């Protein structure tokens, strides 16, 4: 008996007819008649099989296949609405906080980023009630980053157009190898780890600009090698560097783009340690706090020491700087505080030795979650007699976030309670006369990141 197990009922009937033909038909003495009957039955069966194939194909196209195609289209549309899911599936080109290209296994990648800060500054000084106001392109940067040969071998190159001449000037230019278990080694030109107000990007500050105190003590860019570790709750950095251009009576200067024979230090070292007490490390890559952020607490300390080049007279100055700082995030509110100390020892004369101190406290709160933020800052610095007065300033203003830091509008007012003793034009501040005070700067800026 013929049994149907794996084929359709219609097909089974055809196969049953084939089986039946083996026992039906004319008698054994009439061979010609039997052959003719079998041929006729075969032609009939072939026609039935062809008809069945056509019918089943049409039914599948109209039913199962159509539904499968519709489901596939729905999935593609849903995925296209979520950029991160497309990237997770291994997109080789597109946008992910920058335009990117990469090969299939991710061993080579390239990301292009840019920063535009367009600003208007109005400055008022006591001297002759002088007002100065104008627009400026404060920052225009282009950067490339990614990895080569391996996801563990990383690089970054960033250049900025000078805000006065338009010349393209190198800032970051470094390579980094990930050693594993949280360790990495970096070499090239970058900002040594010392104080977070300087190493956190200018695109992710709270106010229009960093504080004056930061401009005095920061290390800027230099050529370095640095060993880094970042664990679950502890981060550490130690570096050997070309040093910084420091002065007790001026803002710090960068040591970027200097030849080996244009070095003004015998040696320079930096070190920093941070402890994450709550939250995650990524929260502290900027100074604001978003409404969905959990409570975060980071505290840290940094040191820097350098010795001036021997045999060059006035350049033989030893410097030691330290900082203690902390960041705190409370949902839509934030707080940052840092205290600094520095000591200079000039070999030529003890009259030019100084012990200087300063601090910065700033905080902000989102009045409209993730859209409108108010902030304020107070800073103070003791020049230890290098100038007659200490420096005091209050800054207050707002941020309006169109799309977080990628597109935001920042406006603030800096009220200098004492004399500004030197130009800090990047911050919109100019030198006051010896008896002047209360210089005011109003700054308004639009930022776009791409």
Q: Can you tell me about this structure?
A:
This protein has 450 residues and is an alpha+beta fold. The chain has 2 domains: 9-80; 98-449, Porin. The chain has 5 helices and 18 strands. It has helices at 9-21, 31-80, 83-88, 196-199, 212-217; strands at 93-95, 99-102, 109-124, 131-147, 153-161, 168-180, 183-190, 222-230, 234-241, 265-278, 296-308, 317-330, 333-346, 354-368, 372-382, 391-403, 407-416, 440-449. A 16-stranded antiparallel β-barrel has the order 3-4-5-6-7-8-9-10-11-12-13-14-15-16-17-18. A hairpin with a 6-residue loop joins β2 and β3 (109-124). α1 (9-21) packs antiparallel against α2 (31-80).
Structural class: alpha+beta
CATH class type of the largest domain: Mainly Beta
Mean pLDDT: 87
Tally the helices.
Answer: 5
Low confidence ranges: 1-12, 21-28, 83-88
- Total tally of structural domains: 2
Strand order of the largest sheet: 3-4-5-6-7-8-9-10-11-12-13-14-15-16-17-18
> Strand fraction band?
35-45%
**What is the level-2 CATH architecture name of the largest domain?**
Beta Barrel
Helical fraction: 10-25%
The CATH superfamily of the largest domain is identified as Porin
Query: Care to count the β-strands?
Result: 18
- Shape label: elongated
Order of helices and strands: HHHEEEEEEEHHEEEEEEEEEEE
Structure characteristics:
450 residues; alpha+beta; Porin; 16-stranded antiparallel barrel; 5 helices; 18% helix; 45% strand
Explain briefly what this protein structure is.
The chain folds into two domains: 9-80; 98-449, Porin (Beta Barrel), CATH 2.40.160.10.
């Amino acid at each position: 008996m013929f049994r149907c197990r794996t084929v359709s009922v219609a097909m089974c009937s055809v196969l049953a007819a084939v089986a039946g033909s083996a026992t039906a038909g004319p008698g054994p003495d009439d061979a010609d008649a039997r052959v003719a009957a079998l041929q006729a039955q075969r032609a009939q069966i072939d026609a039935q099989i062809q008809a069945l194939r056509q019918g089943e194909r049409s039914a599948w196209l109209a039913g199962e296949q159509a539904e499968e195609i519709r489901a596939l289209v729905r999935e593609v549309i849903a995925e296209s609405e979520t950029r991160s899911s497309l990237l997770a599936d291994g997109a080789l080109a597109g946008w992910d906080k920058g335009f990117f290209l990469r090969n299939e296994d991710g061993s080579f990648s390239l990301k292009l980023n840019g920063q535009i800060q367009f600003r208007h500054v109005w400055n008022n000084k006591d001297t002759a009630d002088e007002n100065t106001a104008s627009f400026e392109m404060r920052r225009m940067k282009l950067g490339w980053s990614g990895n080569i040969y391996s996801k563990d071998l990383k690089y970054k190159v960033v250049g900025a157009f000078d805000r006065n001449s338009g010349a393209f000037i190198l800032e970051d230019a470094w390579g980094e190898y990930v050693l594993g278990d949280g360790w990495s080694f970096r070499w090239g030109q970058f900002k040594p780890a010392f104080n977070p107000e300087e190493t956190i990007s200018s695109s992710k500050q709270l106010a229009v600009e960093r504080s004056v105190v930061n401009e005095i003590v920061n290390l800027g860019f230099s050529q370095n090698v640095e060993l880094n570790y970042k664990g679950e709750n502890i981060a550490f950095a130690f570096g050997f560097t070309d040093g910084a251009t420091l002065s007790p009576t001026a803002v710090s200067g960068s040591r970027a783009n200097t030849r080996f024979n244009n070095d003004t230090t015998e040696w320079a070292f930096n070190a920093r340690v941070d402890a994450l007490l709550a939250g995650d490390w990524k929260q502290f890559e900027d100074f604001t706090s978003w409404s969905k952020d959990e409570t975060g607490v980071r505290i840290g300390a940094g040191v820097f020491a350098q010795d001036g080049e021997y045999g060059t007279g006035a350049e033989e100055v030893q410097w030691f700087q330290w900082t203690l700082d902390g960041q705190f995030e409370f949902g839509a509110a934030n707080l940052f505080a840092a205290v600094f100390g520095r000591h200079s020892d000039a070999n030529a004369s003890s009259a030019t030795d100084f012990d200087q101190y300063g601090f910065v406290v700033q905080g902000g709160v989102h009045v409209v979650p993730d859209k409108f933020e108010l902030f304020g800052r107070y800073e103070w610095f003791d020049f230890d007699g290098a100038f007659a007065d200490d420096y005091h300033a209050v800054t207050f203003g707002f941020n309006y976030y169109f799309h977080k830091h990628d597109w935001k509008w920042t406006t603030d007012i800096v009220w200098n309670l004492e004399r500004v003793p030197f130009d800090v034009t990047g911050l919109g501040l100019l030198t006051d006369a010896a008896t002047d005070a209360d210089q005011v700067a109003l700054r308004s800026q639009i930022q776009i990141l791409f």
